[in-house]
Amino acid sequence: MSTEMTDKPTLRTVAAAAGVSIATVSYVLSGHPRSQAISETTARRVRDTASRLGYRRNDAARAIRTGKSDLVLLSLSVLADPWAQAVAAEISAAVTPLGKTALIVADGDWRTVLSNKTPDVIFIDHVADDPELVADLERFAARGVQIVAFSEVLEPRGFDVIRSGAEPRCHLAVEHLLERHTKIGALTSKTEGAPRFDAYRTTMAAGRPADGAGRDLRAAPGGRLPGRAGAPRRAGSADRALLHHGLRGDRGDPGRPPAAPRRTG
DNA sequence: CACGCGGTACAGAGCGCAAA
DNA sequence: TTTGCGCTCTGTACCGCGTG
Protein backbone atom coordinates (compact mmCIF):
# COMPACT_ATOMS: atom_id res chain seq x y z
CA MET A 1 0.00 0.00 0.00
CA SER A 2 1.26 3.43 -0.85
CA THR A 3 2.23 5.85 1.88
CA GLU A 4 2.74 8.82 -0.41
CA MET A 5 -0.44 10.54 0.72
CA THR A 6 0.48 10.42 4.41
CA ASP A 7 4.30 10.54 4.43
CA LYS A 8 6.01 13.86 4.73
CA PRO A 9 7.23 14.82 1.25
CA THR A 10 11.00 14.83 0.82
CA LEU A 11 13.38 16.10 -1.80
CA ARG A 12 13.23 12.65 -3.33
CA THR A 13 9.43 12.75 -3.50
CA VAL A 14 9.46 16.13 -5.20
CA ALA A 15 12.17 15.04 -7.63
CA ALA A 16 10.20 11.96 -8.63
CA ALA A 17 6.98 13.91 -9.04
CA ALA A 18 8.64 16.67 -11.05
CA GLY A 19 10.62 14.26 -13.20
CA VAL A 20 14.03 15.70 -12.33
CA SER A 21 16.94 14.64 -10.14
CA ILE A 22 17.23 15.25 -6.40
CA ALA A 23 20.09 17.63 -7.03
CA THR A 24 18.04 19.75 -9.41
CA VAL A 25 15.29 20.09 -6.82
CA SER A 26 17.85 20.99 -4.18
CA TYR A 27 19.36 23.72 -6.34
CA VAL A 28 16.03 25.24 -7.27
CA LEU A 29 14.48 25.24 -3.82
CA SER A 30 17.58 26.38 -1.96
CA GLY A 31 18.30 29.21 -4.35
CA HIS A 32 21.80 27.85 -4.85
CA PRO A 33 23.85 29.94 -7.34
CA ARG A 34 23.92 26.94 -9.57
CA SER A 35 20.13 27.11 -9.90
CA GLN A 36 20.71 29.95 -12.38
CA ALA A 37 21.92 27.30 -14.77
CA ILE A 38 18.58 25.50 -14.59
CA SER A 39 15.95 26.46 -17.14
CA GLU A 40 13.04 28.55 -15.92
CA THR A 41 10.62 25.91 -17.19
CA THR A 42 12.25 23.21 -15.08
CA ALA A 43 12.61 25.49 -12.07
CA ARG A 44 8.96 26.48 -12.20
CA ARG A 45 7.90 22.85 -12.50
CA VAL A 46 9.99 21.99 -9.43
CA ARG A 47 8.56 24.87 -7.39
CA ASP A 48 5.02 24.05 -8.42
CA THR A 49 5.45 20.39 -7.55
CA ALA A 50 7.01 21.19 -4.17
CA SER A 51 4.18 23.56 -3.41
CA ARG A 52 1.53 21.08 -4.51
CA LEU A 53 3.00 18.31 -2.33
CA GLY A 54 3.47 20.64 0.63
CA TYR A 55 7.21 20.07 0.73
CA ARG A 56 9.16 21.68 3.58
CA ARG A 57 12.93 21.47 3.95
CA ASN A 58 14.26 19.10 6.63
CA ASP A 59 16.75 21.29 8.52
CA ALA A 60 18.14 18.37 10.49
CA ALA A 61 19.06 16.51 7.34
CA ARG A 62 20.53 19.65 5.87
CA ALA A 63 22.67 20.12 8.97
CA ILE A 64 24.22 16.69 8.45
CA ARG A 65 25.71 17.66 5.10
CA THR A 66 26.52 21.31 5.70
CA GLY A 67 27.35 21.22 9.40
CA LYS A 68 25.16 24.30 9.81
CA SER A 69 22.02 24.29 11.93
CA ASP A 70 21.15 28.01 11.62
CA LEU A 71 20.69 27.89 15.38
CA VAL A 72 22.16 30.47 17.77
CA LEU A 73 22.13 29.35 21.40
CA LEU A 74 22.03 31.97 24.13
CA SER A 75 22.43 30.59 27.64
CA LEU A 76 21.41 32.93 30.46
CA SER A 77 21.83 32.01 34.10
CA VAL A 78 19.30 34.63 35.25
CA LEU A 79 16.61 35.69 32.79
CA ALA A 80 15.24 38.38 35.13
CA ASP A 81 18.48 40.35 34.89
CA PRO A 82 17.92 43.53 32.80
CA TRP A 83 21.30 42.96 31.20
CA ALA A 84 20.31 39.41 30.20
CA GLN A 85 17.03 40.59 28.75
CA ALA A 86 18.78 43.28 26.75
CA VAL A 87 21.34 40.81 25.41
CA ALA A 88 18.57 38.35 24.48
CA ALA A 89 16.69 41.06 22.61
CA GLU A 90 19.82 42.24 20.80
CA ILE A 91 20.84 38.76 19.72
CA SER A 92 17.34 37.80 18.59
CA ALA A 93 17.11 40.95 16.51
CA ALA A 94 20.55 40.39 15.02
CA VAL A 95 20.16 36.75 13.98
CA THR A 96 16.63 36.86 12.53
CA PRO A 97 17.58 38.82 9.38
CA LEU A 98 20.32 36.23 8.80
CA GLY A 99 17.75 33.44 8.62
CA LYS A 100 18.93 31.98 11.91
CA THR A 101 16.93 31.14 15.00
CA ALA A 102 17.87 32.26 18.50
CA LEU A 103 17.36 29.55 21.10
CA ILE A 104 17.39 31.07 24.59
CA VAL A 105 18.08 28.81 27.57
CA ALA A 106 16.90 30.59 30.68
CA ASP A 107 18.31 28.32 33.38
CA GLY A 108 21.86 28.36 32.12
CA ASP A 109 21.80 24.62 31.46
CA TRP A 110 23.51 24.85 28.11
CA ARG A 111 25.14 21.43 28.46
CA THR A 112 21.79 19.64 28.32
CA VAL A 113 20.86 21.49 25.13
CA LEU A 114 24.21 20.72 23.53
CA SER A 115 23.73 17.02 24.22
CA ASN A 116 21.30 16.78 21.29
CA LYS A 117 21.79 19.99 19.29
CA THR A 118 24.74 21.61 17.57
CA PRO A 119 24.20 25.36 17.19
CA ASP A 120 26.27 27.45 14.79
CA VAL A 121 26.98 29.98 17.54
CA ILE A 122 26.82 29.75 21.33
CA PHE A 123 26.65 32.69 23.73
CA ILE A 124 27.03 31.82 27.41
CA ASP A 125 26.58 34.54 30.00
CA HIS A 126 28.43 32.77 32.76
CA VAL A 127 30.91 29.90 32.70
CA ALA A 128 32.50 28.66 35.89
CA ASP A 129 36.20 27.84 35.72
CA ASP A 130 35.40 24.14 35.80
CA PRO A 131 37.76 21.92 33.72
CA GLU A 132 34.87 19.70 32.67
CA LEU A 133 32.79 22.63 31.42
CA VAL A 134 35.76 24.13 29.64
CA ALA A 135 36.52 20.78 28.01
CA ASP A 136 32.95 20.70 26.67
CA LEU A 137 33.37 24.16 25.18
CA GLU A 138 36.71 23.25 23.65
CA ARG A 139 35.18 20.16 22.05
CA PHE A 140 32.42 22.18 20.39
CA ALA A 141 34.84 24.88 19.32
CA ALA A 142 36.98 22.19 17.68
CA ARG A 143 33.92 21.16 15.64
CA GLY A 144 33.66 24.66 14.21
CA VAL A 145 31.02 26.04 16.56
CA GLN A 146 31.63 29.71 17.35
CA ILE A 147 31.52 30.22 21.10
CA VAL A 148 31.41 33.47 23.05
CA ALA A 149 31.62 33.20 26.84
CA PHE A 150 31.24 36.07 29.28
CA SER A 151 33.65 35.39 32.10
CA GLU A 152 35.95 37.20 34.48
CA VAL A 153 38.11 34.14 35.16
CA LEU A 154 38.03 31.94 32.05
CA GLU A 155 40.93 32.04 29.60
CA PRO A 156 40.25 31.84 25.83
CA ARG A 157 40.98 28.30 24.63
CA GLY A 158 39.83 28.06 21.06
CA PHE A 159 36.77 30.17 21.79
CA ASP A 160 36.11 33.81 22.60
CA VAL A 161 35.95 35.19 26.12
CA ILE A 162 34.52 38.60 26.90
CA ARG A 163 35.77 40.23 30.06
CA SER A 164 33.05 42.39 31.55
CA GLY A 165 35.70 44.72 32.92
CA ALA A 166 34.09 45.77 36.20
CA GLU A 167 36.82 48.23 37.12
CA PRO A 168 36.66 50.61 34.14
CA ARG A 169 32.87 50.78 34.39
CA CYS A 170 32.95 51.27 38.15
CA HIS A 171 35.50 53.99 37.58
CA LEU A 172 33.12 55.77 35.20
CA ALA A 173 30.27 55.45 37.67
CA VAL A 174 32.31 56.76 40.58
CA GLU A 175 33.75 59.65 38.59
CA HIS A 176 30.25 60.59 37.51
CA LEU A 177 28.98 60.63 41.08
CA LEU A 178 32.01 62.53 42.35
CA GLU A 179 31.10 65.41 40.09
CA ARG A 180 28.36 66.24 42.59
CA HIS A 181 29.17 64.22 45.73
CA THR A 182 32.09 63.55 48.02
CA LYS A 183 30.56 60.65 49.94
CA ILE A 184 29.20 57.60 48.20
CA GLY A 185 27.37 54.66 49.69
CA ALA A 186 27.52 51.22 48.12
CA LEU A 187 24.88 48.56 48.64
CA THR A 188 26.60 45.21 48.29
CA SER A 189 26.05 41.63 49.34
CA LYS A 190 29.64 41.29 50.48
CA THR A 191 32.60 43.62 50.74
CA GLU A 192 35.54 41.22 50.81
CA GLY A 193 36.60 39.35 47.71
CA ALA A 194 33.84 40.85 45.58
CA PRO A 195 35.40 42.07 42.28
CA ARG A 196 32.67 44.65 41.78
CA PHE A 197 33.12 46.23 45.20
CA ASP A 198 36.90 46.05 44.95
CA ALA A 199 36.67 48.00 41.72
CA TYR A 200 34.69 50.75 43.40
CA ARG A 201 37.08 50.86 46.33
CA THR A 202 40.11 50.99 44.03
CA THR A 203 38.63 53.87 42.10
CA MET A 204 37.86 55.81 45.25
CA ALA A 205 41.39 55.29 46.52
CA ALA A 206 43.03 56.06 43.21
CA GLY A 207 43.26 59.80 43.60
CA ARG A 208 42.11 62.86 45.43
CA PRO A 209 40.65 65.99 43.85
CA ALA A 210 42.99 68.96 43.48
CA ASP A 211 41.02 70.98 46.02
CA GLY A 212 41.87 68.40 48.68
CA ALA A 213 38.29 67.35 49.30
CA GLY A 214 38.11 63.88 50.77
CA ARG A 215 36.61 60.84 49.18
CA ASP A 216 34.61 58.49 51.29
CA LEU A 217 33.13 55.20 50.19
CA ARG A 218 30.99 53.49 52.78
CA ALA A 219 30.07 49.89 52.24
CA ALA A 220 26.71 48.50 53.29
CA PRO A 221 26.69 44.71 53.31
CA GLY A 222 23.16 43.39 53.14
CA GLY A 223 21.84 46.41 51.33
CA ARG A 224 21.59 48.86 54.25
CA LEU A 225 23.79 51.83 54.89
CA PRO A 226 25.09 52.47 58.43
CA GLY A 227 23.20 55.17 60.26
CA ARG A 228 22.37 56.01 63.82
CA ALA A 229 22.37 53.02 66.12
CA GLY A 230 19.29 50.91 65.70
CA ALA A 231 18.06 52.99 62.79
CA PRO A 232 19.63 51.87 59.52
CA ARG A 233 18.73 54.26 56.76
CA ARG A 234 18.06 53.72 53.12
CA ALA A 235 20.51 54.83 50.55
CA GLY A 236 20.15 58.35 49.25
CA SER A 237 19.90 59.37 45.61
CA ALA A 238 23.63 59.17 45.01
CA ASP A 239 23.73 55.70 46.46
CA ARG A 240 20.95 54.47 44.25
CA ALA A 241 22.65 56.03 41.27
CA LEU A 242 25.80 54.10 42.05
CA LEU A 243 23.88 50.89 42.48
CA HIS A 244 22.25 51.47 39.13
CA HIS A 245 25.62 51.94 37.43
CA GLY A 246 26.90 48.87 39.17
CA LEU A 247 24.16 46.62 37.86
CA ARG A 248 24.06 47.86 34.32
CA GLY A 249 27.66 48.75 33.76
CA ASP A 250 29.22 45.76 35.38
CA ARG A 251 28.44 43.25 32.66
CA GLY A 252 28.30 45.59 29.74
CA ASP A 253 25.67 48.19 29.08
CA PRO A 254 23.73 47.07 25.96
CA GLY A 255 23.98 50.61 24.68
CA ARG A 256 27.73 50.44 24.62
CA PRO A 257 30.03 48.14 22.71
CA PRO A 258 31.32 45.27 24.84
CA ALA A 259 34.96 44.79 25.63
CA ALA A 260 36.91 43.33 22.72
CA PRO A 261 36.97 39.53 22.90
CA ARG A 262 40.27 37.77 23.26
CA ARG A 263 40.80 34.60 21.34
CA THR A 264 43.41 31.97 21.02
CA GLY A 265 43.80 29.64 18.10
C1' DC B 1 28.83 -4.12 11.38
C1' DA B 2 25.78 -2.77 7.67
C1' DC B 3 22.37 -0.03 6.26
C1' DG B 4 19.15 3.78 5.65
C1' DC B 5 17.66 8.39 6.48
C1' DG B 6 17.45 13.56 3.56
C1' DG B 7 19.88 17.15 1.48
C1' DT B 8 24.17 18.99 -0.59
C1' DA B 9 28.37 19.25 -3.46
C1' DC B 10 30.73 18.15 -7.34
C1' DA B 11 32.44 15.69 -11.44
C1' DG B 12 30.95 14.72 -15.61
C1' DA B 13 27.43 13.10 -19.19
C1' DG B 14 24.22 14.43 -22.84
C1' DC B 15 22.66 17.58 -25.99
C1' DG B 16 22.29 21.49 -29.23
C1' DC B 17 24.47 24.80 -31.90
C1' DA B 18 27.93 27.43 -34.43
C1' DA B 19 32.24 27.60 -36.74
C1' DA B 20 35.84 25.53 -39.38
C1' DT C 1 31.63 16.03 -40.92
C1' DT C 2 34.26 17.29 -37.17
C1' DT C 3 35.37 20.04 -33.41
C1' DG C 4 34.68 23.02 -29.63
C1' DC C 5 31.91 25.15 -26.44
C1' DG C 6 28.18 26.22 -23.31
C1' DC C 7 23.98 24.86 -21.15
C1' DT C 8 21.30 21.65 -18.53
C1' DC C 9 20.90 18.00 -15.79
C1' DT C 10 22.36 13.40 -13.63
C1' DG C 11 24.54 10.18 -10.49
C1' DT C 12 26.65 9.44 -6.39
C1' DA C 13 29.68 10.15 -2.34
C1' DC C 14 29.19 12.06 1.89
C1' DC C 15 27.64 13.70 6.45
C1' DG C 16 26.05 11.78 11.99
C1' DC C 17 23.21 8.90 14.12
C1' DG C 18 19.81 5.38 15.06
C1' DT C 19 18.24 0.81 14.14
C1' DG C 20 18.35 -4.02 12.95
TrEMBL record:
Keywords: DNA-binding, Transcription, Transcription regulation
A Pfam cross-reference name: LacI
SUPFAM superfamilies, sorted: lambda repressor-like DNA-binding domains, Periplasmic binding protein-like I
Region described as Disordered: 205-265
Compositionally skewed regions (Pro residues) per UniProt: 255-265
Molecular function terms, GO-annotated: DNA-binding transcription factor activity; transcription cis-regulatory region binding
Keyword Nucleotide-binding applies: no
Biased amino acid composition, Low complexity: 219-235
Residue span, HTH lacI-type domain: 9-66
Lineage top rank: taxon: Bacteria
Cited Gene3D superfamilies: 3.40.50.2300, lambda repressor-like DNA-binding domains
Protein's UniProt name: LacI family transcriptional regulator
